[in-house]
Description:
- The chain has six helices and two strands, in the order E-E-H-H-H-H-H-H.
- The protein is mainly alpha-helical.
- Helix 1 packs antiparallel against helix 6 and helix 3 packs antiparallel against helix 5.
Amino acid sequence: MTRGPTIVRVAPSSGRGIKCCCCRCCECINFGYLTSQHGLIKLTEALLGSLCQSLLVKYGLSEASSMGSAFHGFLTTASACLLTTSLLIACYVLSSNSQSLIRQSIFECVFNSVACFMYLSASSYMGVAVNIYLYPRYAIVNMYAAYPAMTAVYYIGVVVGIVHGVDAYISYKYYKGIR
C-alpha cells in the first residue's frame, strides 16, 4: 500500500501580533483591528481630534480671553473625546475580547452620540466667536494667524462631529444586531 502526499493546511493569518520571519510574536496584540472599518473610523476620530486640540493650544491660547467660553468649551470637548477615543483604541488593540464586549454594550453608541453633539455644538459656538471677535483683528493686523487656525478648528470640528455621528449609527446597528 502506497501512501500519498501529506497535505498540511495552514490557517490564514488573523492579523494579530507582529510578523517575525516565519512566525508571529505578541499575538495578544490585535493590529488587525486598526485596518478594519471600525478601527479606521476610530483612528480618523483620534487624528482629527488631536489636530483640533493641537491647533487650539498652539494658536488659540493667546486669544482665549477674547473668544471666551467658546475656546474653553471646544478645548474641553476635544480633550475629553480624544482621551476616550484613545482609550478605546488601546483597549481594542490590546484585547479582541474587549472589542467584542464593549461594542456589544450601549457605551460606544452613547459615547459617540454625545461626542457628535458636543463637537457640533462646540463648533457652532466657536464659529460665532471666531467671526465676531477674531475676524476684525484679522482684517486689520497683518499676518494674524489665530483667525485662520481657529476657523480650521471649527471646520474640522464639524467633520469630527459627523464622523462620531456615523460611528454612533454603526455602533447602534451593531448593538441591535443589524448588519
